Amino acid sequence: MINYGSIGKIIFSLLKWFYYITRNYGVAIILLSGLIKIVLFPLTRVSLKSMKKMQKIQPQIAMLRQRFKHDPQALNRETMELYKRMKINPMGGCLPMIFQLPIFFALFTVLRDAIELRHSPFIFWIRDLSSKDPYYVLPILMGVTTFIQQKMTATDQQQKPMMTYFMTIFLTVIFLNFPAGLVLYWLITNILSIGEQKLIAKIS
After folding, report:
1. Which sign, positive or negative, has the C-alpha torsion 161, 167, 170, 173?
2. The dihedral of CA 147, 149, 152, 154: what is its sign?
3. Neighbour-count burial of 95, counting CB atoms closer than 10 A to its CB (0-12 exposed, 13-18 middle, 19+ buried)
4. Handedness of CA 101, 107, 108, 110 (dihedral sign)
5. 18 near 188, Cβ under 8 Å?
6. pLDDT one digit per residue (tens) for the chain, 204 residues
7. Rounded distance, CA 68 to CA 142, Å?
8. Where are the domains of the chain?
9. SS3 state of residue 118
10. Less CB within 10 Å around the terminal CB: N or C of the chain?
């Protein structure tokens, strides 16, 4: 019997349950993505609020960089003091990703090892969710949505273009040979995250 680990077992059980309803593992992965986003929504909201605060203090950060450009220690000290005054956790924006990674790796294991998912079709050209997208459509779409999401969440305007392009290219290249089901999961997660950010911006 394949050992998926605790998270993997939950992921696999949910996938099978969604498959029982939809009879399509691709749709099951989409529903799983939505469920995970709903569960993580409170953390995401906290994260996005933290990033919004970070964006607001960027002019002050820029002034500190200019003032202490020859004194890195003083710059770090004053920056942390600014975070403290503004009640900002500089790592707050990483919370959803920290919780997403174990799910991502668990899903990767399930897609790689589960006999049930081998040769499971999704739609059109995706005939096997456990294999890579033969035409690389999903990885490219994933890259596009990653680019959009990175632009929306970047907090440091000086690093924004560099990090946006780097992350987009880096992730797209990595995902080219990943199982189509895993890329589909990340693509849907990106799309939902973009919508989530717009929703939170409206209600904040």
Report:
1. negative
2. negative
3. middle
4. positive
5. no
6. 445 577 888 888 888 999 999 999 999 999 998 998 888 888 777 777 777 777 777 788 888 888 877 778 888 888 888 878 877 776 666 666 677 778 778 877 877 777 777 788 888 899 988 888 999 999 999 999 988 887 776 655 555 567 777 878 888 998 998 889 889 988 999 999 888 877 777 765
7. 39
8. 5-203
9. coil
10. N
CA angle 181, 16, 11 (to 5 degrees): 65
51-59 contacts at long range (C-beta below 8 A, 24 or more positions apart): 51/92, 51/93, 51/153, 51/155, 52/204, 53/86, 53/87, 53/88, 54/88, 54/90, 54/93, 54/155, 54/156, 55/155, 57/82, 57/86, 57/88, 58/155, 58/156, 58/157
In which residue are the tokens 């996005």 written? 48
Residue type, 204: S
Give the CA distances from residue 100 to residues 25, 41, 84, 96, 112, in Å, rounded to whole numbers and listed in that order.
20, 12, 27, 6, 18
